[in-house]
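Re: export button greyed out
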Amino acid sequence: MKASGDDPLSNLIRALRHLPGVGEKTATRFAFFLLREPPSVANDVAAALADARARIAPCERCGHLTERNPCTICVSPTRDDATLCVVETSQDLLAIERTGAYRGRYHVLHGAIAPVDGVGPEDLTFGALLARVKEGSIREMILATSPSVEGEATALYAERLLAPTGVAISRIASGVPVGASLEYTDPTTLEQSLAARTRRSSDRR
Amino acid sequence: MKASGDDPLSNLIRALRHLPGVGEKTATRFAFFLLREPPSVANDVAAALADARARIAPCERCGHLTERNPCTICVSPTRDDATLCVVETSQDLLAIERTGAYRGRYHVLHGAIAPVDGVGPEDLTFGALLARVKEGSIREMILATSPSVEGEATALYAERLLAPTGVAISRIASGVPVGASLEYTDPTTLEQSLAARTRRSSDRR
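Workaround output, generated via the alternate export path:
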C-alpha cells in the first residue's frame, strides 16, 4: 500500500485529485460512487490502471505512448521517412491518425511551452527532435501544435531551433472550422482565416 | 488482471468511463495524463482504490460508508437515540456533520427514488429504516433528502411508509440560501421560501 495516512477514504480522495481538472468535490463524488458500486467496478479501474501503467511507455524514437517500443508507426515500412509531424501529445497524434490523411512519421513533444505553468523547452522532447532532424532523412517538418498561445510559442521555438538544420518547416492551417458558421466564429479565428486566405485562381500564392 | 480486451489503453479508458459524469473524452484525458505522470501517480490511485474498496463498507445499522461497522456515529453513547435524520447519501451525512448542529442518529438511503433512472423504493434502504423506527426508541424522523424532484418524491414515500408507526416526521426547510441575493434566486426557490414563511412574532405557526 502506498497511502500516506491511514484513512482509506481520505487517501482515495487525495489520490483521485491527481486527475486533471478534478478538485476536492469531484474527487469526493468519484470516491463515494466507487464505494457504492459493486467491488468489481473499483477493482476494474485499479487493475486497468496498474496494467496500462506497466505496459504502456513512450516510444524511444517518437515519444508516442504505446505498448510497442519502437511504436508501430516508427517501424512501419510504408510510412514516409521524409515527413515529420510534430505534435504536443499522443492524443493529438491519434486525432491526426484518425483522419487517415497523413502517411509520414511523428514526434511527440509531451506538452507545450507554458511559462505560467512552469513548462519550459527543457521539459519537452526538443533534444530528441533536433537529433532526429540532424540524422538527415527528414525533408519537411510539419508543426502541428495547437493554434493556442502555448502551441504557437512552442511552434515558434521549434522553428528557431530547427531552422539552422535547413529542414523545410511548415505549420498547420488555422481558420474557420469546416462546417462552422462565420456568424458564430470567434473574431480571432476569423481574423486569422482572412489573413491566411489562399487564392482560388491558377496563380496561387 | 480483470481487463476484458488486450489493449491496455482501451481497457483503462473503458474502466475510467465508469466514473460519474466521465465520458469518452474525459476518460481519454485522464488515461493519457496518468500515463505521462510518473508511475507512482497511477500506482497511488490504483492502491488507494483497492484499499478503500477493501476497508470501507456500509454500516450494517445506518448504511453510512465507513471503515467501522457499526459506524462511530451509531455506537457513540453521546448521540440522541430519539432523533433520526434520513439522508440520500454518505456525502449528505458528512455535510450535516460538518455543521456540528445535529446530535441524533442517521439513516442513509443510498439514493433517491428516480423512475427515469430506474431507481425505485426497493433499491433503497427503506426496509431497514422501517425496522429501525419500529424498534421504538426513535421519536422524530427528519427527512433530509434534497429539495429536488427525486428528493421530494423520496421524502413523500418515506412519510407514507413511516406514518403508520406514529413517529413524528419533519422535513428540512427549503428556501433562499443564507447570504444569497433574492435577485438571483430562482423563481421556484423564491416561491417556496414565500410559501414556507415563518412568523417572527411570538405566535409562531
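Chain A has two domains: 8-55, 58-199. The button fix ships in the next patch.
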